[in-house]
Every structure is written in structure tokens, then in C-alpha cells.
Design brief:
The complex is a heterotrimer of chains A (406), B (286) and C (363).
Chain A (H helix, E strand, L loop, with lengths): L1 H5 L2 H19 L12 H9 L6 E9 L18 H7 L1 E8 L4 E8 L2 E8 L2 E6 L4 E6 L4 H7 L15 H10 L5 E11 L2 E10 L6 E9 L5 E8 L7 E9 L17 E4 L4 H14 L33 E3 L6 E4 L20 H11 E4 L2 E5 L4 E5 L4 E4 L3 H8 L6
Parallel strand pairs in A: 6-12
Antiparallel strand pairs in A: 1-2, 1-11, 2-3, 3-4, 4-5, 5-6, 7-8, 8-9, 9-10, 10-11, 13-14, 14-18, 15-16, 16-17, 17-18
Chain B lengths: L4 H4 L9 H13 L1 H23 L22 H10 L3 H20 L1 H6 L5 H34 L5 E2 L5 E2 L1 H18 L1 H13 L3 H20 L29 H26 L6
Antiparallel strand pairs in B: 1-2
Helix pairs in contact in B: 2-7, 3-4, 3-5, 3-7, 4-7, 5-7, 5-9, 5-10, 7-8, 7-9, 9-10, 9-11
Chain C lengths: L1 H7 L4 H4 L3 E12 L2 E7 L2 E3 L3 E5 L6 H8 L7 E6 L2 E3 L3 H4 L3 E4 L11 H10 L9 H11 L15 H12 L6 E5 L7 H16 L3 E6 L2 H7 L2 E6 L2 E7 H7 L2 E7 L2 H10 L9 E2 H6 L2 H6 L5 H9 L6 E7 L6 H10 L6 E6 L2 H9 L8
Helix pairs in contact in C: 5-6, 6-7
The chains are: A alpha+beta (406), B mainly alpha (286), C alpha/beta (363).
Amino acid sequence: MSSKWMRWLPAAIVPAVVVTAAVAIPATAGAAPTLPEKSADEVLAMIADSTGVAFSGTLEQRSDLGLPDIPTTPGSSELPTGALEFLTGSHTVRAFVGDSSSVRLQVLDDMAERDVIINGDELWLYDSDPNEAVHVTLPEGTTAAIDAHAGGDAYPGYTGPRTPAEVATRLIEAIDPSTSVSVATTALVAGRSVYQLSLDPKSSETLVDGVTLSVDSETGLPLRVEVTAVGQDDPAVSLGFSAIDFSAPDASLFDFSPPAGATVTEKPIDPEALERRLSKHSAAHGALDAPHPTDPNEDHLAKHLPGVDAAGAEGAPAVYGSGWDAVVALPAMPDAAFPMGTDAGGTPASAAETAQLLEQLTTDVEGGRVLSTALVTVLITDDGRIFAGAVPVERLQAAAAGALER
Amino acid sequence: MPSDPSRASAPAIRTSGLGLFASEVRVLFARRRTWALLAALAAVPVLIAIAIRLSSDGDARGGGPPFLGSITQNGLFVALTGLAVSIPLFLPLTIGVVAGDTIAGEANLGTLRYLLVAPVARVRLLIVKFAVAALFCFAATLTIVLAGTAIGAALFPVGPVPLLSGDTIGVGEYALRALLLAAYVAVSLLGLSAVGLFISTLTTVPVGAMAATIVLAAVSQILGALPQLEWLHPWLFSHHWFGFADLMRQPISFGTFGDNALLQLGYIAVFGALAYGRFATKDILS
Amino acid sequence: MPAPAASAHADEPKAAAGTLAIETRGLTKSFGHATVVRDLSLAVPRGSVFGFLGPNGSGKTTTIRMLLGLASPSGGDIRMLDAPMPDAGRSVLPRVGALVEGPAFYPFLSGRANLLRFDSGDRHADPATRSRRVDAALDRVGLTAAAGKKAHAYSLGMKQRLGIANALLTPRDLLILDEPSNGLDPQGTREVRGLIRSFADEGTTVFVSSHLLAEVEQMCTHIAVMSAGNLVTQGTLDELRASGSMRVRVHTPDPGEARAVLSRLGLSPDADERPDAAVAVARPAAASATAVAYPGAASAAVASASHRDTVVTADLPATAPPPEDISRALVTAGVRVRGFSVDGASLEERFVALTGEGFDVAQ
């Protein structure tokens, strides 16, 4: 009769094996490779030399900022969630980079896709739902500038993720004495051996525990950026390749023409405005950031603050302190319009929705309401001023109370 | 004893066992029920196309996924719309019927005991039954695609097809992708087939096994729709059912195809092992 | 359970191998608390036509399911064609043709397609000869004309024949036929009986279960009787006929005196006295259902000459006086003896005695 029970053995073993494999295989990243030792400066130099590396890859972006659940259905443009979308969920992005003037990013949504295609002096933005395309002809001479900053701000209307290289470039530009830089260890990312560069704030007043850049040991291309919040084990924000192939993508990928039936908007670009944005960016690595809080020096939300993005210098926020624990302050606003009031595409949200969202996201504290995430805190004082930073709420309150040096 | 020495010893011939598979396929397609199921599936795109043709205005997408453009502009969308519309209900329904019937149906007819004494080893019977259920999955999705393409081409203009990425492909490449899509959906249903096979070993009442399988397909989809159970979602066999959109990107993304195949393979392994445990130890009393 | 059985047979393994087509030791099957087959030890000699007799529900079909590996025994072991079952099923079953608990077919396939289907399940059956073998099997059971008809259009009798044809698809060493003449008319029953004899003539061992005594009696060389899950007896038909104790029956209008005399001679007359007619009533159905009347029925008919007579019966142990002394003593005592016979118990009486219940002789 024991043979009868033996026949149940597979039924007992197979599920255990399958579940174990499903859980364990993604978790084991593989043994850390042995690589020739490099100093932090050498790794930084590798990154600097990595421009122009062609590749095709799949990026995974995960954000776990501790925000409450917000409806983030792509395409439901009624809600001002364009920016929030990239703060709460996870995203898969395919990146194809040919040479300095051919880039294609695809945000893979459910049953939809958003594309950015740069091909020479042409820029296309395509959204499959609602089948709209935006076409921009870039002024001569700006292409290289865009590339130097890895695209960044030059995609008007695009709020999607960037490649780790873009983010890393920003981060490295922002390295200052408040940051200690070290090569922590080696690891495997997307099957490639990488050097892991740690950027750690010296200040203890920030919510950022550290930033880890994983840099491909052969090409110097940053493959992953992870931002860890104080008191968390898993990265609060992670952007990295899950697969990468260093062969030049098919050139036809960059040759885009919108499908028949798509609504195409020709968007002229003002060369001066572009110039101003680029120069401002490189000078101050200021308010024009990628829409995720990987840059410790600034509040990602600041990008969306009315008056900052568009108005430029005259509306510039006040900054208390510098480095990781800096606090950005905005002057009082007429109706305490919450930064979320405008979504990425500029669709105005109804006041009621904004109020409801505000209610949903913020909690009452002394002197105002606070939006608290793992990495960033925003304080809206009762008199309508806004303070933000990668700092605990107490520091914002201190800034509001005028206790911080400007 | 006058026994012939040629049959006193163990039989010398040993065939591959493909004969049983072929026989199983013949039995499946000799049933009027199988054809009725396929006809019902073929009717889905046909009805969609006719309804849209008759209603001059209104929603020309026919309930398909939003990325599909207007059917009235391109008849090739009918097949994909038909497939997408069939995924949540019609396909699980038909697969549930076929998979739930595998063992329980034979037990109910009494033919199971004659197969086993033929003899068909129980493992072999399970494998063949699953293989035929899998074949039906492919036949089902292919039926929808073919019927949809035919009716779409008959009622609407046909032309180059835009993809999710905004690029446009010709009819030839579209045909290839439509077949890939049919394959993707068929693969998606393999896990459900394995579940049905297991349930089918539990009972001698085929209707019960079919109903249970179909109910599980619904339960899996409902659980997959509950955001509170997000941790569970990647484990549900219906998790990638709508991931076929990745085949409509440029270049094709096979990531979801692979994830889906792996997930379904896990289900096949787990429920195959359960079905084996149950069926190999079961007393055949019907 | 198997251990003592094995040791009991340890001295005769060689003798047993090769001479028995089926051998079970201590075979037991329980479903929950209900034991359906208890400690069954069957020995079916090769070349025999083995009648497996028992009322409905006595465990015959369950035993057959265990023999064929459809159900696993709760205890005991089985050897079939010199190989252990169910472990050696893959090599043994191709040589075994079976009809288990009635025929079963795909109703939407033709009779011929059904046989092709089952044959394709046997990996040892040559696909090249499949079509020819199926036709031969159909021909043998007389279904050639109906081969193309869908199975759901078959009558019960035709299904039964198709089921037997299914058992004949390849040359078999052993046929296990569960109630093969179920649902057949008398003509069909006779044909099946003829088929079974012809299998036996070809050297095939036939294990045939039945609840019909007459059927078994007419075609079997060996017999085993099941009752409520227990094996009551087994042996050759002749052994069984002879094994019953001799009985004396006295047909007389003076039962009281006859009993007294018999008691005085050291016999113990049976308590019940039956009018002659009772014996006769029990049998005419059997006589008409099966074309051949059997000996018990004939003698009963003779005995029914007088309606007033009572039959007094008694076992005749070996220690009893010889029959002639008994008859003389009866006559001397003034008992009006209208009939006096000494015979072995009829098979039916034996079975009634063994199983405690009658058989459905007429079904």
C-alpha cells in the first residue's frame, strides 16, 4: 500500500518546487562578480565616457514611497495623476538608444503605450490611447545639448521615466561636499557585472539614506539607480535595466511616422526658451528635474509647481540650506492650489477633485497639512506657503517658523 | 496446454503511443459537441462584425481593447476584437467543457475502464488527455482568428495595421502577429486546462468537473481584479490573459509571452502532479 | 496478511507457476468500513473455463476490477499469467481480454470506430493489422453488418456482443468476462456460450462471472462461489457436485412416521417438510429460461405425481446405514413409501446451502 502513497509524492513535491523556484530564482541575483578594483573617481570617469553607447534594454521602475493608493490608470486624464503615476506604481520601459541623436523610449502600459522618439532634429511623442502624436522639430544645434543632458527637459509634455544614465548624470552633477562617494561593491544587474557607486548624504537631517548607482563594468553605462530611504530595507525608488543588449537597435525603430487616423499636433519650440531651460538646468540643476525624486537636491514635485516651471527666475523658490537636507520654500499662493492641480499634460483638474485628492494625500500637522512619503515631505502651511524637501516634517516646520538659515 | 508460444510471452510489438493521441483527437473531433463549441466561438467575431456593420454609427470598436482602432476602418481588427472579447468568458467556458470532460467524461461513459485494461497506463492517459485539451485551446483561438479575419475582410476594408507603438505593419506581418496572438491566448489557457484535468480526475460527473473548472476561471479573474490581493495576482493563471498587447508593440515584446508560458507551465506541473496523484491511486469503479 | 499466505505456499511455488492463470491470496477490498471482498484466494487453472458465481453484490465485479488493476486491493496479492498485478499490468493486460460490468462505448462513434479506439490504446497491438483484427472480432460476434452504426443505436444485446468483440481484438491468453450474457436473448446466450467454448478449445483460459447458475453449470469446467464477499467454495464442477453429502428423500403421505424411522436409524431429518409441488414450483422458470432442463428439475417433475405427498429429506452421513436398509426399515415400519431416492444434492441446493440465498435463476 505504500506504493499508493508514493504516487502522491509528485503532487507534494512539484508544487513546493514550483513555488520555491518562482520565489527564489528572481531573488537570487547571482554571485557578485570579481572585478578589478576601481576608485570612485575612476567609476565616475567611466560614466562620463559612456555617452554614445548604443543599446536596447528593458527598464523596470519601481517606486514605493508609501503614498496611499491613488487611481493611476493611464489614460484616465480626468484625474491629475500624470506625475503621481510614476511615484506610486511600477513601470516597464523599453529603451532603444542608437547614437547621440536616436533615442526611443516606450512606456509599456496595459493595452497602451507611450513613445518618445528622437531622431536627429525630429522629436515625436506618441500616445496610443487616445492615439495622439506630437511632433517637434528641434532647432539646429540643440540636439547635442539635449543629449549632453540625456534628453531631460527637452521632451515637452513627456513625464515618463528616463534611463538610469540620464538620472545618474543629474546625480553626479549634484555631487557636492555634502555627499560621500564610494565604490561599495560589485554586483550583477541585468546579467551584467557592475560597480556599485554609493552616494551617501553626510547629513542626518535627510530622509535619504543613500543612492546606489550600478555602473556597467565594461561600458560604464549606469544600469540602475536605487534610492533608499532612512529606515527602509528595500529601495524607495528603483530604476534599472532588467535586460540589456549592447548592440545597436534597428535604425527603422527611430524612423517614426504616426499611424493613419492619429491626431497629430505640430508643436513649435521656441529656441530661446529651450536654451534658457537647458542652461538653467546645467547651471543650477534646479527645478527642472525628472519627475521622480532621485535627485536628492531637489523636490521632484517642484517641477510641477505653478510658476516654477514656466516663470523661471522671478518665481524662483527660496532654498534653506543646501545639499541633501535643503528645504525649498514657495511663496504663499492665492488659493493654496496644490501642486497636483495640473497634471503632466496640463489638463486642469476640477477644484473638487483637487481638494479631494489633497484630502486623501495629506494629513494634519501643527501649522498646516503635510504630504509625507518615504523620501520627500511637503508641508502646506495654513497661510498657503509650501515647504518641501527630502527631510522629516520637523525640518519643514522649522523652516516655516523661520528657524533655518536661508 | 495448446497455447501458442507466440502469445504466451510478453508481446513483442511496442508502438510509440502516438496512436492513442491520434485516436483521442479523432474522438474529440467526432463529437458534435466539439464542433458546437468551435462554432459558438466563431460566432463571437462574426456577431461583432455584423452588429457593427448594421449600426452605422456608435461604438465602432465592438468592445475590443482600446488600442484597436475602428473596425469599420480596418476589418482586420475584427479577429483581435473577437479574441479579446472571448478571453474572459467564452474561451474559459469552452476550455472548461473540454478539460472538465477529459477523465470524468470517460468515467461517465464507462469507457475509462476499457481504456485502462486495453491497457493504457494511467500516466499516459493523463498526458494524452492533456495534450488533446491543449490542442483544443489552439483550435479554439485559431477558430476565432480565422472566423474574425474572414468576416472582417468580407464586411470591411482591409489595410495596414497600426501597432501600439504607433508604427504601422503590412497585412502579411499582421497575419503573422495574429497567429502569434492566437498562440498566446491558447498558451494562456493551458493552466486552466491543467486545472480542469485535475478536477476531472476527482469525479465521474463530467458536468460537475466542467462547471467547477469554469467557476475557477471566473474566481481567478475576480481575484485578479481585487487590488487588495495584489500579492496574489502574479500567481493567478489568468494573470497574463490580457498581456497579449505586448505582441502588438514594435518591436514585439516577448517578455510577457515568456512570463505567461512560465506561469502556465507552473500550473501544468502542479496540477499535472495533483492529477497524477489522484488518478494513479484512484479506484475506477464506474 | 500476505506473509502467512506466502509461507503456506512456499513449498509449492514451482508447481503453481505456469499452471494457474489467476491466483489470488488473501485478496481483500474494503471501502471505508464495508468489506466487499474478504480474504479471497482464487486459483484459476490455465485452460479452464472458470465460472465465478455469486448473487449480485457478492463482490464478483469488485474482484474482477482488482484482477484488472482498476481497483487496488486493500490487502492480499494477485498473480495473473504468472506476473504480479497490478504492477505488471503493462505486460500482462495486453494478453487479457476483458468485459467488465457491462460494455461501454462512445455513443457518437460507430461500433467499428469504438473498437479501433480501444485497440489504439494497446501499445502492443500492431496498428498495421488493426483494421483487419477489428473486422475479424466483429465478424466473430456477428456484428459485421452493424459495424458502421453508431453505438448509441445498438441494442443491449449488440452492445454486449461488441463488448465481447473488444475482448477479442488481439489473441489473448486469458479472457475475463463479467456477466457476458447479460441482456442477451436465449439465442444470444447460446451463441455466447458457444463462443466461450470455442475460446476454451483454442487454449484460452476463460474466467466468466455470472449470477446465473445454469449458465455456469453448462459451460464451465471449474467453479468458484462468492457470497457476501467471501469465497464459499471452488473446484471443478464434478468435485463440487460430488462434495455435497448424500441425501435421502422419501416421498410419502406419512411424514411423521417416516421421520421417526429415520431418526431411529441415526439420521437427522430436515425440519421442514415440503409438499412435492414446492420443489417443482421452484424450477419451471429455469427450465423454460434455459433451453436445456437440468437434472434436478427433471426429478422434481417426476416426483410431483402425487399432490398429497410430502418429501422428507435427511443428510446421509457416511456412518449411516446403507440405503437399502433404510428403505426396508421404512417399509417395515408401515410407512407408505411412494418414492425413495438417494442422491447428491443438486448444485442449486448446494449453493442455496452455501450462500444462504437463492440465485436469480430466471433473470
